[in-house]
């Protein structure tokens, strides 16, 4: 192979994330026919292990979409919101806004309940919005990647379900890194992806759907082709994907889920993420003028957002990025649009630290030490 | 890594296809941030080389969709067919039918012009259908994977464009294996994928779009999110994808397109595919009772379909598959639904030989020799 000009950086961004060597190597496993028995040698254990990781049983079916987490989210809108119904999109940041945008651009009647960046969903305001709009469907973000806020989806879904609405949850950046109370929440469809806390390359959207979702989809017209969860389930029931999957990623996912479930252990994996959240919180508390951005008690186990002191700008953070690059890291200077907005409002910008997937506390410790030496002083 | 139970088979199916060792190895190249400068080190040359391979210039823009060829095709329907307009789907097989299905399940007013399996599009019948239905948009399959028939898309698109309609072409299984007269045809959007004649794993849909398509999309409502070519182009203009791409595939695609354009050479690649088509035709002519299935003059350069003699059933072909598996191959016993239909009509089923991507004449020669010794005698 010709030499490539690509840098070998350790990704501390919020996805895609660091791929550990064993997972990269699994990319060398053989390609296969997606309608052949070889397919099921990959996807049957993949789907079984995904259900273990999700803590769901026979009440849930798993769909693997070719695409990304957005593919699964958009499918939930197209399959589960009927024309003329109101969908309420609860947003605590850019990815909550994206769920709303998906509803709008698909011609759905959509309203939004927005919270200030850094704040979590508030139950009383959710109840009020549901009383006002009487939605048939409500979407909510489990873990907002732009702000590092985790919502209490059990509480939110309880309110949503009590109103009689269906709950759809975006769990893109948390699944695989923390307990996701999918069954307990009673959400009809929970969407996630491979390239965040599962520690895999991007390429598949993943969804867990209930019988209630299946029933509802049967009453929704124009669900599209790849966005139709019923068509997808027809294949998923045979441990297949609707269209040709990326064989490399399937092989890597087979290996990685076996590792998570049978080697690292699910509880250990979740505990590791919590420990890393605490490490970053300690790090920030030791940095004069820097503050955690997420509402107290809602800091994500998989990524942390940090508000910088007065006098430090987005431009400074972009300079930090280049210094960190020279040290072999990809640093995350914050979600672009959010920082634009914050600076426009005269507020201080934030940066993010992704500590998801297969990043270890030892790797994070080294990263924080290097970052601490690079961040501008208040 | 634990031992995996996966067989190392050489894929002679019609996609996914054989991945050559250099491409597998390229999967070990580093992951990257999709909004970082590292992204462009991959996708700028990828898009440039795709345009070279497509023989298009500044009149065309390239979109890389996360998903598959179907993702690009469905986007063409959602972005370019307005509600209330008629779309005519020209079908010479299962994937032409799929384009029609995509129009129907997205709520478009769709009519179909179907040809018998094995036959190519007929210009006079296309003209008549256009006169009858007055479609605003017409879709056509360049290379029908289920029947091994290649349509003359220049002739078809000339008729379509003369009528004032937009032409959308599905080039999923041919792009990268034969000359695709995209610019000459004047089609508004040409969709293809990675896992066929490009010799890559699945994971990206690829589209070439014209200014005419961009203009039309601006007048179509409810284009969706990932299916909106305008949203996609906003990112593509920066050499990015709309959502997180599979980094492994991007690295492999960077290496593979450089190989195709600068090492193998585009013309050599196309000539190799034609030579393989001729090799298979010679092989079939030497098999008593077996016949080429595709209409004369329309046999695909990337896959060949073979009608089996009387007395040989689909069940026999499935037995051939298992014998070939034991020899290290994945053999293709024909497109399931088509063979069901053929047997129901009292006709003989077909099998397929994929000779696409990076399969070499030497590999094919060995495969045909092995297959010849296994196929049941007439």
From TrEMBL, chains A, B:
Substrate binds at residue 352. SUPFAM superfamilies: PLP-dependent transferases (SSF53383). InterPro entries: Aminotrans_V_dom, PyrdxlP-dep_Trfase, PyrdxlP-dep_Trfase_major, PyrdxlP-dep_Trfase_small, SP_NH2Trfase/AEP_transaminase. Residues 46-318 form the Aminotransferase class V domain. Its cofactor is pyridoxal 5'-phosphate. Keywords: Aminotransferase, Pyridoxal phosphate, Transferase. Belongs to the class-V pyridoxal-phosphate-dependent aminotransferase family. This is Alanine--glyoxylate aminotransferase family protein. It comes from Desulfolutivibrio sulfodismutans.
């Amino acid at each position: 192979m010709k030499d490539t000009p690509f840098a070998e950086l350790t990704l501390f961004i919020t996805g895609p994330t660091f791929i550990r060597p064993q997972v990269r190597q699994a990319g060398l496993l053989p390609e296969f026919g997606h309608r052949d028995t070889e397919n099921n040698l990959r996807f049957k254990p993949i789907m079984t292990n995904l259900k273990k990781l999700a803590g769901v049983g026979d009440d849930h079916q798993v769909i693997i979409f070719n695409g990304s987490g957005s593919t699964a989210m958009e499918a939930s809108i197209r399959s589960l919101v009927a024309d003329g119904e109101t969908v309420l999109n609860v947003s605590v940041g850019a990815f909550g806004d994206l769920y709303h945008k998906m509803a709008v651009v698909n011609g759905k009647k959509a309203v939004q309940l927005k919270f200030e960046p850094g704040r979590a969903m508030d139950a009383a305001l959710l109840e009020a919005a549901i009383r006002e709009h009487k939605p048939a469907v409500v979407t909510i973000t489990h873990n907002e990647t732009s702000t590092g806020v985790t919502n209490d989806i059990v509480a939110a879904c309880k309110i949503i379900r009590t109103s009689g609405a269906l709950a759809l949850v975006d769990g893109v950046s948390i699944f695989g890194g923390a307990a996701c109370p999918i069954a307990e929440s009673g959400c009809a469809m929970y969407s996630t992806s491979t390239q965040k806390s599962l520690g895999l390359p991007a390429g598949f959207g993943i969804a867990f759907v209930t019988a209630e979702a299946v029933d509802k989809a049967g009453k929704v017209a124009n669900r599209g082709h790849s966005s139709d969860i019923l068509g997808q389930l027809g294949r998923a029931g045979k441990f297949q994907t609707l269209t040709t999957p990326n064989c490399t990623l399937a092989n890597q996912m087979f290996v990685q889920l076996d590792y998570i479930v049978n080697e690292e252990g699910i509880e250990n994996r979740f505990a590791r993420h919590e420990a890393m959240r605490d490490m970053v919180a300690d790090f920030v508390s030791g940095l004069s003028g820097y503050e955690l951005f997420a509402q107290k008690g809602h800091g994500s186990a998989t990524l942390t957002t940090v508000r910088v002191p007065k006098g430090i700008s987005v431009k400074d953070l972009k300079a930090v990025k280049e210094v960190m690059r020279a040290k072999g890291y990809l640093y995350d200077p914050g979600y672009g649009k959010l920082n634009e907005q914050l600076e426009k409002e005269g507020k201080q910008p934030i940066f993010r630290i992704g500590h998801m997937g297969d990043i270890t506390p030892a790797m994070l410790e080294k990263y924080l030490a290097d970052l601490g030496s690079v961040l501008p002083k208040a």
